[in-house]
């Protein structure tokens, strides 16, 4: 039996999962056992208080326009 610390065991375990499952698969596996902390619903309501779907969509469209403009300027130089 080895004398690995808990941190070393955690690192070796993660490396083994990534080797066998890839990063996405290893993450999905770990998330099955990590319950997290806090109240997601209350935190989400507090974070998004007063924000509508229309606000979110407008923000996304605005960011896409800015990114497109930046790309267009780079190409035209």
How would you describe this protein?
The protein has about 80 residues and is mainly alpha-helical. It is flat and about 60 Å long. The chain has a domain at about 1-35. The chain has helices at about 5-30, 40-45, 55-75. It contains three helices and no strands.
Give a summary of the structure in a few sentences.
With 77 residues, the chain is an all-alpha fold. 75% of the residues lie in helices and 0% in strands.
Beta content comes to: under 5%
Radius of gyration, in Å, reads 22 Å
Count up the helices.
3
Instruction: Return the structural class.
Output: mainly alpha
Globally, the shape reads flat
Helix share bin: over 70%
| Global mean pLDDT | 88
Secondary-structure element series: HHH
Give a short account of the largest sheet.
none
Assembly level: single chain
Q: Which regions have little confidence, pLDDT < 50, spanning 5+ residues?
A: none
Span of the ends, CA to CA: 64 Å
Number of strands: 0
List the helices and strands and how they pair.
Blueprint: H1 6-31, H2 40-47, H3 53-76
Keywords:
77 residues, mainly alpha, 3 helices, 75% helix
